[in-house]
Hints:
46% of the residues lie in helices and 9% in strands. By secondary structure, the protein is mainly alpha-helical.
Amino acid sequence: MENTIVNPNAAAEEQPSVLDLLLGEKVVNVAKHLPTAKFEIPRLSEAAGAPVIFTLQALPYGRVQDISRLEQDAELQILLAGCVDPDLKSAPLQHKFGGITPAETLKAMLLPGEIADLSREVERLSGYRRATIEKVKNA
Length: 139
């Protein structure tokens, strides 16, 4: 008769470690692959007769705080830094809306609430203003 040794930790040993999971191919370097999302501005879409969609991108580590700490118009600067499309620094766009700076152009093109909403979405993409962690129960 053969003796079998049962290791109570066998199931745990089969699970990859957290380090192994982080080193796996599915976990990417967020500094190189910042999340993006698209948002429509209904008021502008209605006026233009076609969807006006902004593509926003997360900002790298610390950039949101740097802007918030140093800038008077933090929401405008966060939106300018995180907007991939349209190019809010475009000279033709500035000319159309009479803005000397991109921030002035935004103030002439978007309502204050639209600026705030888009800025908050950049912050959310960057991991702020939302829950990014969960407490593990029974751990």
